[in-house]
Amino acid sequence: MRLFSRVLVASLAISACAPAYAGDDNGLRGSIGSKPQYVLISFDNSGSNALWERSRALAERSNAKFTYFLSCVFLIDRSDRKTYQAPGETSGRSNIGYAASKDDIAKRLDNIWRAHNEGNEIASHACGHFDGRTWTKADWVREFTTYKQVLRSAWAKYGGDPEPEGWKSFVDKDVRGFRAPYLSASPALLSALKEMGYAFDASSVSKGPALPVHAGGLYQFALPTISEGPEHRPVVAMDYNMFVRHSGGFERADHLNEFENRAYDAFKGAFERQYNGARIPFQIGIHFTLMNGDAYWRALERFTAEVCIKPEVRCTTYSDYLKQTGAEAPVTGAALNSPKVSGSGI
Question: Is 196 exposed, middle or buried (0-12, 13-18, 19+ CB in 10 A)?
Fold first, then answer.
């Protein structure tokens, strides 16, 4: 397994987590079945073509739609790496490398376009996967501008077939969400997102499932902490956090079944509490990197195939959730900041 060059190692210090949602449900609590249970499943980095195909097949057989937070370096061939320069970094540097080849990019572009046409969402994970917590608003605007430029030109530069009609319009209008690498949000980031016309940010962490916060025209979603393992300790609902919890961030594929079952039980238990209760949207984050074998992907596949086919469940994208609910009773207030905890995400 290829690990990212910068890893935040250590267990989640949950006591440092600030809740993304406080108070009551704005009157949303009601009887079971009074409203749909939304499930928002997302993928970070979105590089591997094999995992693009695996996730698209999962969506098709599970009646699900996913949000893919794409890192733009996977649409840049290594021979062209000097065309990208992150704020404060030397040209050509990336924490997660670049595409393996031009053919690899062509295949990825095809997967992206197919996923989009199948009703999934493509969102931004920036480019080189740097921790931008100290970046200025101007730095973030520069990174977002580069991101759109890379996506707009990628098909003409690397596509195996003629550029499909609507590609540039899709990049300009439909890439409307963002998740920060390392879940490292800041006021400067949020200000840049608003200036660049993004609709939502998904870089926060909350104590349990939370409704999105709406502030200054931007919706903020938070990955929840959920009960996990024999001691029922909270962990962020993301594969990397479970990887650190289960094996200290080191591969232990010999425990694949154990870790898969623990992840599945954590996902299912958190879902059931909402499905049988307030029905606050439940979010899960997964990476296009296999950890502890493919334990967490297998857990997600079991969970999605079982849950997303239920008639009162809608496994959908962040943008479609906002459309379908009319931004369902969002909490309006001060912008969130992700808790600065070790092991909070990659």
Answer: middle
Residue 207 lies in domain: 34-331
Q: Which of 230, 237, 228, 212 is nearest to 44 (CA)?
A: 237
Q: Element (H or E) spanning 315, and its range?
A: strand 313-316
- d(C-alpha 77, C-alpha 239), whole Å: 28
Q: Residue 29 above 60 pLDDT?
A: no
Q: Which of 126-140, 265-279, 322-336 has the lowest mean pLDDT?
A: 322-336
Whether residue 343 has pLDDT greater than 90: no
In a domain, 155, yes or no: yes
In a domain, 22, yes or no: no
Q: Coil, strand or helix: which one is 36?
A: coil
158 pLDDT above the threshold of 90: yes
288 and 90 Cβ atoms separated by less than 8 Å: no
In this prediction the pTM is: 0.89
Contact predicate 192/140, CB 8 Å = yes
Task: Count the domains in the chain.
Answer: 1
Please say whether the beta carbons of 296 and 243 come within 8 A: yes
